Amino acid sequence: MDRAQLKEIQKKLLSEIKSTQLKVDEYTKLCKPIAPENAIGRISRMDAINNKSVIEAVLRETKNKMQQLQVMQNKINDADFGICIKCKQIIPFGRLMIRPHSKFCVQCAQ
């Protein structure tokens, strides 16, 4: 991988980190506890609790993605950056642009 491609991937990583952090902040705000004194019906309260559970799951996944992005950002200058950790083949540049936190090539990721 040449320097121009690495710079593009680094820009993409920074962009993804920024947008993912915004999502983490948004989901964190949405995960506030549902107060029992809210004057909503029983079914509406159950829906609110269910929605909160879904948002908490999305928040966990988003935090995991953020962690992976930060790890890849720290490894971008390593000699093995862009190499599949399973088959040791080069991860295509296009895949890294779409999913910059990829540790696997397309075949090994399946």
Task: Kindly describe this structure.
The chain is mainly α and 110 residues long. It has a domain at 3-76. The chain contains four helices and no strands. Helix 1 runs antiparallel to helix 2. The longest helix is centred in the middle third of the chain and has 34 residues, at 42-75. The radius of gyration is 19 Å and the shape is elongated. The model has no long low-confidence stretch (mean pLDDT 89).
What characteristics describe this protein?
mainly alpha; 4 helices; 65% helix
> Count the strands?
0
Helix content: 55-70%
What is the succession of H and E elements? HHHH
Summarize the main sheet: none
Instruction: Give the low-confidence spans.
Output: none
Average pLDDT, rounded to a whole number, is 89
**Cα radius of gyration in angstroms:** 19 Å
Euclidean distance between termini CA atoms? 23 Å
Question: What structural class results from the helix and strand content?
Answer: mainly alpha
Helical element count?
A: 4
Shape: elongated
Summarize the structure.
The chain has helices at 3-30, 42-75, 93-98, 106-109. With 110 residues, it is mainly α.
Topology:
Layout: H1 3-30, H2 42-75, H3 93-98, H4 106-109
